[in-house]
Specification:
By secondary structure, this protein is of the alpha+beta class. 33% of the residues lie in helices and 30% in strands. Strands 8-9-11-12-13-14-15-16-17-18-19-20 form a 12-stranded antiparallel beta barrel. A 7-stranded antiparallel β-sheet has the order 6-4-3-2-1-5-7. The chain starts with a helix and ends with a strand.
């Protein structure tokens, strides 16, 4: 019994000394352990007194830490607002699980106090405790308050960090996927790199809307107005590459960031805090790119990436913001499977292309003697291209798994017999950070048959077929709210207002037979001279050529309403030429048959010179025949920002 009493006495004295609390007491304290204290009738009251004293010391320490935080105005500091995802005093995180105070979403000071109290007083420090769930908050508060909240049993976090081995961070930009509403502007996510040479086993940090909707219109509506929760996710990088580069045939650009190891760890700590946490997803602002900006600012608070944007955030503009903040150290390009196959097409003879198609369809075996007529290098390219194409067709569901496995293995086996040779050389595409900016203000002078106006146009986003394709997906058009106002003799007129205009002009090739389409909805003056009418047009057809010169033929039914409602069926033929020096010429001719009016012919020729990412000069001429003949000309300057 005496031994147990001495153990308890030594435990409490050692505990208090380790906490260094004696100096903070309002009265002197000294302990003298002798036989009188160890008497059983005195031990229990003394033990209870020590317990009460210990609890009071903890309470005093928490109050002191909170007072120190208030004195330093920590709840007003930028980093606390970054950790709370609070640009204007209210957190953009909508999940109550993210907050330790009931008022935390709208009261950052209360959230700070509650965080300090949990860190300092909670005895539960297991994986689900506040101590383990919020390592980024804890690290920052320990630094700012010059204290330590001790250690916990955060095995889940420790295992993840050991598995990730965070060393570097890379911004990843998969190019636009025009046929997907969620990805028509492209996408951005972050990759956490380890010390391994291969980046395929790195971890991709992604933010996306969680939805099971398959209706495109419903998805667009909910995405615009916050109908979905967005979540962070962490997946192996090779899975994201398989999704974007192989399944969706999207080129991928990688931008290595110059973050230090401490900055990388700050980002990882906050990523851990966001696991299973949701916030409302908005297509134009609080989207995938926007949330990558938060993570990067938390890693390096001196940068202000979000200040580069006003009312919407588009993934390609995110890349430009990282460049402007001098965060990018090195750039890499990963061509899509489609880009690789088109590269093989350009290197193969007509006999080689036919051999690839025969191998993929199963009409020819990889050891067929007809391949002997080709050179050794072309045979290598034929077998490599056939393997890539059969895999592409399997991903699209056009080849069964058994046929794919058999043909793919046979092709690679035959290719291995030809020995090692240089990989096919693909010409690198222009980097997205060289593209013109998304928003546009257009100043110009326009001459009509009976009037002449000065015009001012404004378009929030993004790109049209007549603009320079450098850094963009060629043949793609995405325009929202493209509006032009005319000024003539103190009169102000609406020249056009396009609500939405989309196009995907994708040339066919030997290996690919894509579908080209175009749609437009908005007001224009093409139908009735000085009258505005609202038109909705949807067309489909085919295209041919390459990124330098391509043509297209479309069938485009349309409905017009306004001063004279009408329905028509149109046919359009066009061609685009991308010159060197960032110049582009677009020619188009259309004929529309209307039910209640005369036919409509429209010829147009435009030329644009992209001076730099912010300025372009344009000229345009049109000939219109519809009840009368009219010539129109315009010249102007586009300013992009």
């Amino acid at each position: 019994m005496q031994m147990k009493k001495r153990i308890w006495q030594r435990y409490w004295i050692t505990f208090l000394q380790s906490q260094d609390k004696f100096s903070s007491l309002p009265f002197p304290v000294s302990f003298s352990i002798d036989s009188r204290v160890t008497e059983s009738r005195f031990f229990l009251p003394f033990f209870l007194l020590l317990c009460a004293l210990t609890l009071s010391l903890y309470a005093t320490t928490t109050d002191k830490l909170m007072a120190q935080a208030h004195t330093k105005h920590l709840s007003d500091q930028r980093y606390w607002h970054l950790l709370m995802h609070s640009p204007h005093g209210e957190s953009e995180i909508d999940d109550p699980a993210f907050f330790l105070s009931p008022e935390g979403k709208n009261n950052l000071s209360a959230e700070l106090d509650s965080t300090i109290r949990h860190f300092n007083e909670d005895t539960n420090r297991s994986n689900e405790s506040a101590f383990c769930r919020f390592p980024a908050r804890r690290a920052w508060l320990e630094q700012e308050l010059n204290t330590s909240f001790g250690v916990g049993e955060c095995s889940d976090y420790d295992v993840l960090v050991a598995k990730m081995d965070p060393q570097k961070v890379t911004l990843v930009f998969p190019s636009a996927h025009i046929n997907s509403p969620a990805s028509m502007f492209g996408h951005t996510f972050l990759r956490i790199d380890s010390a391994m040479e291969s980046k395929l086993m790195s971890y991709a940090i992604n933010y996306a809307a969680h939805t099971e909707d398959t209706n495109g219109l419903l998805f667009a509506y909910k995405g615009l107005f916050g109908g979905y929760y967005g979540y962070y996710s962490m997946l192996p990088y090779y899975e994201k590459l398989k999704e974007y580069r192989d399944s969706e045939s999207r080129d991928v650009w990688e931008y290595d960031l110059n973050l230090t190891h401490d900055e990388v760890m700050a980002m990882v700590r906050h990523i851990w805090e966001l696991q299973r946490i949701n916030s409302w997803y908005y297509f134009f602002d609080e989207n995938c790119s926007y949330h990558m900006l938060w993570l990067t600012e938390i890693a390096r608070p001196s940068v202000h990436l979000r200040d580069h944007f006003f009312y919407y955030i588009i993934p390609p503009e995110t890349v430009s913001a990282f460049e402007a903040e001098k965060l990018v150290k090195q750039k890499h390009y990963r061509p899509s499977k489609r880009a690789m196959l088109l590269g093989y097409e350009s290197h193969l003879s007509s006999e080689g292309i036919q051999s690839v198609l025969a191998l993929v369809s199963g009409e020819m075996r990889p050891d067929d003697t007809r391949l002997a007529m080709l050179s050794d290098q072309e045979k290598r390219y034929v077998l490599e291209a056939a393997a890539e194409l059969v895999e592409y067709q399997f991903i699209e569901g056009r080849v069964s798994k058994d046929d794919y496995t058999h043909r793919y293995h046979a092709l690679l086996s035959q290719r291995s017999n030809l020995g090692i040779a240089p990989m096919i050389e693909l010409k690198a595409k222009p980097n997205p950070d060289t593209a013109h900016h998304a928003a546009r203000i257009a100043l110009g002078k326009e001459w009509y048959e009976e009037r002449s106006v000065y015009s001012i146009g404004w378009r929030p986003a993004f790109h049209d077929l007549g603009e320079d394709d450098t850094g963009h997906l060629f043949g793609a058009q995405i325009e929202f709210l493209d509006t032009v106002v005319g000024f003539e003799h103190n009169n102000v007129t609406m020249e056009k207002s396009t609500v939405l205009s989309l196009a995907s002009i994708a040339p066919v090739s030997h290996f690919f037979k894509p579908f080209s389409w175009r749609m437009k909805s908005g007001w224009d003056r093409d139908y009735g001279g000085n009258h505005l009418s609202f038109v909705t047009r949807v067309g489909a057809g085919t295209s041919f050529g390459n990124e330098y010169l391509y043509g297209y033929v479309l069938s485009e039914p349309e409905i017009r309403s306004g001063f004279n409602t009408d329905i028509g069926l149109g046919f359009t033929a066009g061609a685009a030429l991308n010159w060197s020096g960032r110049m582009k010429t677009l020619m188009e001719a259309s004929h529309i048959f209307y039910l209640d009016n005369s036919d409509h012919n429209h010829l147009s020729l435009s030329h644009l010179w992209q001076w730099n990412e912010s300025v372009a000069i344009r000229v345009r001429g049109e000939h219109i025949e519809h009840r009368y003949s009219e010539e129109r000309y315009s010249v102007g300057v586009n300013f992009y920002f």
